[in-house]
Please model this.
Amino acid sequence: MRKFFTLVFLITVCFSYALAQTKTITGTVKDGSTMESLPGVTITSSSGQSTQTNADGYFSIEVSSNANITITFIGYKPQTIPVSSQSTYNIFLERDSQELEEVVVVGYGTQKKADVTGSIGSVKGEEIAKQPSMSAMQSVQGKVAGLNIVASENPGSAPTVMIRGLGTA
Model:
């Protein structure tokens, strides 16, 4: 009887060890269209471990032998891969081509450009980059019709911004 319990105990220990085996997998994550390495990609295993790729798109994570890993990155479609016997993975992510609608930032929030019923002034980033300046206010000064920026006489204080007249300060 004692031999029977010893045998059952040994079998239980062996099975629990086999089920709880972990392994380290490594790999790289790249953009599927440009083949460039992607830094900062999140790799999460189904057992809860998580890591991110380094500057070269390389990752290393310890997972259980029967886990799945999920690869996510902003602007790309998430991908789930079952862990197999291999220990190195080369993963290629597809871009997620959902585009944002054009949005306008207004004084009290944001609105879709199509919903705004007033005049809109905009300045492209290339125009701002052409003229070096000390602040964002100086960057747009003189580039938008109806926008007047008046420097304050007090050192360190913010300039006054007037839109289409003196009563809007």
Notes: The chain has two domains: 2-93, 120-168. The first strand starts at residue 22 and ends at 31. Residues 24 and 96 are 29 Å apart (CA to CA). The helical segments are 2-19, 125-130, 136-140.
